[in-house]
Design a protein that fits this description.
By secondary structure, the protein is of the alpha/beta class. The chain contains 18 helices and 13 strands. The strands form two sheets. Strands 3-2-1-4-5-6-7 form a seven-stranded parallel beta sheet, with helices on both faces. It has a six-stranded parallel beta sheet with strand order 10-9-8-11-12-13, sandwiched between helices. Helix 4 runs parallel beside helix 5, helix 7 crosses helix 13 and helix 10 packs parallel to helix 15. The radius of gyration is 21 Å and the shape is globular. GO terms for molecular function: UDP-N-acetylglucosamine 2-epimerase activity.
């Protein structure tokens, strides 16, 4: 790969993007110019992720975090446009569906810089999700669409996006999980530190607005986790700052008494804990992918998902907060050995662990003179 140093701007703004783009950043090496919008930035958590993932210190935008969606996009877009005008990259890479993703895509498009969208073609078909709007807009202005699965490719074709812009690459999550999962001894020590036994506990995370913006939704989730714990299965609950604030705001502290509540954990520690959980309960998009690599069952507490592959393969199920969550959790916990054996023999639908090498090679080709000349804007 013959790209000049700092010639590919990788724009991101959240910790999940750091995780998913880490192997691609490593593949690009010195060609990477890492730009963080500050959408989710705090030194303790984001700095820890940078260190854990062995990533370079990014250029950090200012005044973005804490704003509403339009403010985040506008503030990021203005600063990115100025940065790209002053030091024009040969290509811009964005990932997923965040506000940072959309801002990076619009900034590249405005400056006619080749744009790569990693994880293109995801669709929930739920217009109530801001992320759905972000991902659709980014796909339609991208020059290279790196789709993780055949279903993602089909979604792009259904929207009449040009075939020569679409590449089936697999998902970088496979290699991320394989590289970041602690070894057996470290996982054993991690479980011992939390007083847990393998295949005998629930690991839960909740942070999305649909589950934390109302007392009814959050209370319904926590009540079912409390019921699981009261029945004798430990529930480990690393609590997101958004969720902690919501618990305090709604006065739901009593539902945490039987749960093993911790602060957010590092990515490697989370994988180590997930690797031995009898059941995962989460509203995270990333966990829907990670569970397929770890071979663990997941109940997705959401009304819709843009990752139906995990459900189709038998790793996950969509559930609503409340009784539906509790009923299915008890059913799945009742046949843990059989379920874990079945999932261990089921391949992940997200590829072979070579996605980042494919995407890096495609990005290098697009960023080179021949790739730029092939773009419509260069005609």
């Amino acid at each position: 790969m013959c790209l000049p140093p700092s010639s590919v701007a990788v724009v991101l703004g959240t910790r999940p993007e750091l995780v998913k783009l880490a192997p691609l950043i490593h593949e690009l090496g010195d060609a990477t110019r890492l730009v963080h919008t500050g959408q989710h930035w705090d030194e303790a958590m984001s700095g820890r992720f940078l260190r854990d993932l062995d990533l370079p210190r990014p250029e950090l935008l200012t005044g973005v975090g804490g704003r509403p969606r339009a403010g985040q996009i506008a503030q990021s877009l203005g600063q990115l446009d100025a940065a790209f005008a002053e030091d024009r990259p040969a290509a811009v890479v964005v990932q997923g569906d965040t506000n940072a993703t959309l801002a990076g895509a619009l900034a590249a498009n405005a400056r006619e810089i080749p744009l790569v969208h990693v994880e293109a073609g995801l669709r929930s078909f739920d217009r109530a999700m801001p992320e759905e709007h972000n991902r659709v807009m980014v796909d339609h202005v991208s020059d290279l669409l790196c789709a993780a699965t055949g279903e993602n490719v089909a979604n792009l074709r259904a929207e009449s996006l040009a075939e020569d812009r679409i590449e089936l690459t697999g998902n970088t999550v496979v290699e991320v999980v394989r590289r970041q999962l602690p070894d057996g001894a470290a996982r054993a020590a991690l479980l011992a530190a939390h007083g847990l036994r393998p295949d005998a506990y629930v690991l839960a995370t909740v942070h999305r607005p649909e589950n934390t913006d109302t007392a009814e939704a959050l209370g319904a989730v926590l009540a079912e986790l409390d019921r699981i714990a009261r029945a004798g299965t430990p529930v480990l609950f690393p609590m997101h700052p958004r969720t902690r604030a919501a618990v305090e705001r709604f006065g739901l502290d009593g539902l945490l008494e039987r749960l093993a509540v911790t602060g957010p954990v590092g990515y490697g520690d989370f994988l180590g804990l997930a690797c031995h959980a009898a059941l995962l309960v989460s509203d995270s998009g990333g966990v829907q992918e990670e569970c397929t690599v770890l071979g663990r069952p997941l109940l997705v507490v959401r009304r819709s998902t843009e990752r139906p592959e995990a459900v189709a393969a038998g790793f996950a199920a969509l559930v609503r907060p409340g009784e539906e969550l509790g009923t299915l959790a008890r059913a799945w916990l009742s046949d843990t050995p059989e379920r874990l054996a079945r999932l261990a023999a089921t391949p992940s639908p997200y590829g072979d662990g070579l996605a980042s090498a494919r995407i890096a090679a495609l990005t290098a080709a697009l960023a080179g003179p021949a790739g730029r000349q092939a773009l419509p804007s260069a005609a």
